[in-house]
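Milestone M4 deliverable, item 7.
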Amino acid sequence: MRKKLKELAEWVDGIVVGDGKIEISGVAAIEEARAGEITFIADPKYLPNLSKTNASAVIVSKEVTQADKPLLCVTHPQLAFAKILTLFSQRPYQPKGIDPHAWVSPTARLGKDLTVYPFVYIGDRCSIGDRATLYPRVTVGEDSSIGEDSILYPHVSVYSGTIIGKRVILHSGVVVGSDGFAYVKEGKKNVKIPQVGVVEIEDDVEIGANTTIDRAALGKTIIRRGVKIDNLVMVAHNVVIGEDSIIVAQVGIAGSTKIGSNVTLAGQVGVAGHIEIGDNVMVGAQAGVIHDLPGNQGYHGSPALPQREYIRAITTLPKLPEMRKTLLDLEKRIKKVEEALSLEGKEKEK
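Output delivered:
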């Protein structure tokens, strides 16, 4: 594929500075780009690399207007780069049909133009939407549904009754609908609480490799539209994750937690059960969330604190040894004063 720079500018709503007729045949990182390719600079500190890159054009912010090569000036360079990379990297979908080594229940309802690879299992009464792709060793349990244009990569396990929307991507090793971790004590014995609910994943969700999403005890575990979940994330029973939220690697979310829309949980955040996180919250890496978090602000630390409170607390931490020494010194001085006053009182009594 080849596109003129001015055509790319129209694609991303940008402005060309320089020759808009040059042809772009690919996309690359700034250090690796060659003639005919386009790259991007999002952080101003990398602007000196403009004169070093071999790229034929560079995507930059609108504040940059001069360089020795053509520029594509946009409001959000990284977003423009993502859209152009998508344009050059995606290939038209070509259905491959259902491989004879796949096992498909006679009661399954199959859409048009499917790609089903060898050793896929599709259970009774399942529904598979048009243009869905199921890679080798995907298992789809009975009474589950998968929406149009969804992609399930190798070794994805979809337990019975799961609902998966349109354009959903499940990467290798994802498990959706396994039992929630729920037991009650009978003396010392652990008695399992049956998990009879389901998981519902709405449209345009992407879930990273080896992530697990448990079925609800009753009702549904729900991943709302547009949510993006990284690798190695654990989502427990009856959790609800709001639209367009981002859950980064190694996050653990305990049961019955409600997460708002446009929330970001950074790497290794732990979230206790039965709490609520408001819309537009950002929780920093390795934070521990043990109570409700109101929306529209950032939180850090364990237990998670509002960002300003956390900064005040963490800047105090290095001073604690000195503060402890001062406190011990004050205690000694106060003790000496008290002893002196006690002696003085006794002398007056005499």
